[in-house]
Design brief:
The structure is a homodimer. Chain A is mostly helical. Helix content of chain A is 51%, strand content 6%. Chain A has helices at 9-16, 20-28, 47-60, 65-73, 83-117, 122-125; strands at residues 6-8, 35-36, 42-45. The longest helix of chain A is centred in the middle third of the chain and has 35 residues, at 83-117. The radius of gyration of chain A is 21 Å and the shape is elongated. Chains A and B meet through α1, α3 and α5 of A and α1, α3 and α5 of B. Chain A binds a DNA duplex through residues 8-10, 19-22, 24-25, 29, 37-42, 59, 64-66, 139-143.
Chain lengths: 156, 156
DNA sequence: TCTTGATCTAAACCTGACTTGAGCTTTCAT
DNA sequence: ATGAAAGCTCAAGTCAGGTTTAGATCAAGA
């Protein structure tokens, strides 16, 4: 073990490139747990650097913090996650990446057909034929999009 | 031409599956332009159905409304965009999809190495070695991430 | 003409993911 | 022992992308 097994929030921030405020925020959201020093300051485990790395990577995959929290909840509480734990979770991520790539390739194919005809019409191109859920993270009119695809009309 | 070349906001909404409120919002953001009826109600061109379709598709590609507005600004003002216009813009999109897929594939490759070693450590895996800007749309600590990668430390 | 449904505007509200600020306290190197 | 740097809490602000509400007006069929 190291002389100092616990690190301060500033160090965790520096080692991961995440703002101190963001780390506090993650803790508040339950993605991270901190011990406290005698004076009440947070003290993190070195292993939390990995944890934060995971959060960052998962975010890039389009997972919300809530979803990430769920993944991390799978980690045995109280014990430092080991290599096997990370492998399991990383493998999960790998599956998601595959799905995302597949969805994008499908979209690309459809778009190619659109480019061919120059139409960009919804029915013909099928760019809105549901099933592409994976492509739908993060944007779009939230309540209506996806609630009607299939009945959506075309130009003229 | 049709008997009725202009459509009301409700019809545009119905034909595209977008909420009426969202259409007003898009107009306010400059993505759409409306004529007005005698009584002050919005009247859209049929071609605006395509325009909205484009907005939706571009959003799924991860473009922000501001970026979409920029793309659409390329369309000749005052004239109904034709097939060639859409082809040009769609081709732009196609390029972006390619980039996105490439970025994801790169991430997948790096993650595979991580799974192999179970480390998830930043320096070794290179999952945060800048240049992956494309993968970075939509999440992540906004101000610091990407401002320091490369100097970011590793576990231990 | 009347009435009902569609629209109008402006402003407030919402979620997610953080950041910022105020006012105070802890740490740590000298 | 002390003073700067780093931390603390809690509340409020921000930004994107819309939604909701309220109260008033428009449009169209019976």
């Amino acid at each position: 073990m190291h002389r100092t097994d616990l690190i301060a929030i500033g160090e965790l921030a520096a080692r991961t490139g995440v703002a101190v405020s963001a780390i506090r925020f993650y803790e508040a959201k339950g993605l991270l747990a901190a011990l406290r020093s005698g004076g009440g300051q947070r003290r993190f485990l070195r292993a939390d650097i990995r944890r934060v790395s995971f959060i960052l990577i998962a975010q890039q995959m389009g997972l919300s913090l809530e979803e990430i929290a769920a993944e991390l909840a799978g980690l045995p509480a109280g014990r430092t996650p080991n290599a096997a734990d990370w492998t399991r979770i990383s493998t999960e991520l790998r599956t998601r990446i595959d799905a995302r790539i597949a969805a994008l390739e499908r979209t690309r194919e459809l778009l190619d057909q659109c480019i061919g005809c120059g139409c960009l019409s919804l029915k013909k191109c099928g760019l809105y034929n549901r099933g592409d859920k994976a492509a739908q993270r993060g944007a779009g009119p939230r309540y209506l999009l996806g609630d009607r695809a299939g009945e959506i009309a075309d130009v003229d």
